[in-house]
Amino acid sequence: MTGIAVVEGDGIGHEVVPVAREILAAVRPDLEFFEVEVGYGRWERTGSACDEETIADLKSADAILFGAVTTPPDPGYRSALLQIRRALDLYANVRPIRGEGVDIIIVRENTEGLYSGIEWTEPDRACTVRVVSRRGSERIARCACSLAAARRHLTIGNKANVLKSDSLFVDICRREAARAGVPCTTRFIDALSLDILMHPARYDVIVTTNIFGDILSDTAAYLVGGLGMLPSGNIGERHALFEPVHGSAPDIAGQGIANPIAAIRSAAMLLTHTGDPESAAVIEEAIDRVLNAGIRTRDLGGNAGTREFGAAVLREVLRGKA
């Protein structure tokens, strides 16, 4: 029995994750789900967004379906997601950007960089240490190369003309690409951010450091209809967590209008990771058929609600499984 930890989190996570879970259960009735509470809502109630018992529960799962968590501007709040990424060593963040004329995978180092967590404040300044290590760079480069080897090309996004840490990152990525026999080029991240919007067909797999990958993938969402369309995987050697790229969106939470596609596609990525790409393809094809039928949520120009769109995908999934 495959055990799936389900974390709804905060905000629209409570709306999109149940939809994704229902579709997962339909396509794979053998999956066993168990709920884990993480996030700002828990922190408000208990003073802890994520504790050691929570981490142990997540480590016990074969994979994690995650929603979205709110991170308030409160110095007493520790980012629950950053805690989980470090505790489970989810070093690779993989974000597919797929749509008409677009097929890009952005691979982002997920545990260091400017999200290293090494920070302190002084009377006249606040400091954050950007960490780019040899080990971190080697393993994210190998992850990206393994994806690019089955595709066409690798682009290394960087700012090595300014940052010494990026010079190390680029050198390591080039070396790993050469070992893997993967063609690669380098692009400065500012130029890359513009060119990916103007000429997306030029790009295949992109590897970059933590915050650059975070910003670049959010920017690239423009190409396929917005953040509501993008899934992601946080992947390590032993654990994996799958989540929509979007945040908790408190401004629309509880209204039933959030786009669940990113969460549903994250569920499909989970299936591929756990060895069932056929069921993942059933889900992706069902989403495409629903969109082609003109059923869309408000962010895509339609009027379908979260549950309504999810129900339409579920019908297509069951039809595909019949």
Automatic annotation (TrEMBL):
InterPro entries: IsoCit/isopropylmalate_DH_CS, IsoPropMal-DH-like_dom. GO terms for molecular function: isocitrate dehydrogenase (NAD+) activity; magnesium ion binding; NAD binding. It holds the Pfam family Iso_dh. Residues 3-313 form the Isopropylmalate dehydrogenase-like domain. GO terms for biological process: isocitrate metabolic process; tricarboxylic acid cycle. Belongs to the isocitrate and isopropylmalate dehydrogenases family. This is Isocitrate/isopropylmalate dehydrogenase family protein. It comes from Methanoculleus receptaculi. The lineage of its organism: Archaea, Methanobacteriati, Methanobacteriota, Stenosarchaea group, Methanomicrobia.
